[in-house]
Amino acid sequence: MHACVAWTGRTRQFDCTIRARMHAHPPAAAQPASEFRVEKSRAEATLTLSNGMSMHGCFFVSGNSRTHAGPEGVKDVLNSETGFVPFEVSRADGRATVLLHRDHIVFLELADGAEARRDPGYDVATERIALMLLSNGTRLRGAVRVFRPKGRDRMSDFARADETFRYLEAGRATYVINVRHVLELAEEIAAP
């Protein structure tokens, strides 16, 4: 049924609504699982955001990566798209999934310190010791891997790589750094 024009004094108002009956959907349990469903597991991390806030929770990662052999890592999830990413936040009253904009993640610390070592090519990539100053004033020191051929595996080559999110392995922690928040990057050269 349509209801369209109504006059109120000198003003004409339009109410063009269609009143239709919505058919109820069967309960979710009665619907078959989608053939496109991908099972995910949780990867714990503590994030530091551009507003200074930190939050602990989990990213959702797949058992198989779309871009390389082996499981998907948090770095893969962050580099896979732009915009928002789901993150399950741990709260006193339980868990809640929020959408965080990737551009505002400065860095995160992974609970799984071995994730970087599962990156394809990790064993053959050149290791460099990096000193980083981030946009929030945090200074980090740790090892980065440069996935380039010999002679093109300098810190400047690491800086120009395509990925926005990269690993930094410190003594007791593995970080994923958003390079858009790196203000200063230097290489620590070992004394002879």
Count of all domains = 1
Element string (H = helix, E = strand): EEEEHEEEEEHEEE
- How far from one another are the termini? 86 Å
Q: Could you report the average pLDDT, rounded to the nearest whole number? A: 84
Question: What portion of the residues fall into strands of 2 or more residues?
Answer: over 45%
Overall number of strands: 12
Determine the fraction of residues in helical runs and give it as a percent range.
under 10%
Gyration radius, in Å: 24 Å
Shape: globular
Low-confidence blocks of residues: 1-23
Helix/strand-derived category reads mainly beta
Keywords:
single chain, 192 residues, mainly beta, 7-stranded antiparallel sheet, 3-stranded antiparallel sheet, disordered N terminus
Report on this model:
The protein is mainly beta and 192 residues long. The chain has one domain (40-187). 6% of the residues lie in helices and 46% in strands. The protein has helices at 74-80, 155-159, and strands at 2-8, 11-18, 40-49, 54-62, 84-91, 94-101, 105-110, 126-134, 139-146, 165-169, 174-178, 182-187. A 7-stranded antiparallel sheet has the order 6-5-4-3-7-11-10, covered by helices on one side. β10 and β11 form a beta hairpin. The longest helix has 7 residues, at 74-80. The radius of gyration is 24 Å and the shape is globular. The termini are far apart. Residues 1-23 have low confidence and may be disordered.
Topology:
Layout: E1 2-8, E2 11-18, E3 40-49, E4 54-62, H1 74-80, E5 84-91, E6 94-101, E7 105-110, E8 126-134, E9 139-146, H2 155-159, E10 165-169, E11 174-178, E12 182-187
Antiparallel strand pairs: 1-2, 3-4, 3-7, 4-5, 5-6, 7-11, 8-9, 8-12, 10-11
